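seq:
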Amino acid sequence: DVQLQASGGGLVHPGGSLTLSCEASGFTFSSQFMSWVRQSPGKEPEWVSSIHRDGSLATYADSVKGRFTTSRDNAKNTLYLQMKYLKPEDTAVYYCAKAPRYAATEREWWGQGTLVTVSS
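struct:
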């Protein structure tokens, strides 16, 4: 079975940093485009970032560009999201998705999420 387990969330002050991880299993991780999406209460899912199979290229939503960095370690089957200069509007549950950008907001591709709360 496909499993995606995100971790690393927590409470952080505005301007702070967090790094999320997503451990993947049950499929050939290195062959899969991966994405991060987030969902705030009462809002639709928002695509955050996607990364090429080999990690050579990552793309970002305008709302996080320049603050977030996506990377992957295919030897460890792990996806990362480094978040800096966090803002209250970044508060959401973050999910990794076994999907490229165009399909990333479809819930069927998500794993377990991790909550990020940005508050003073």
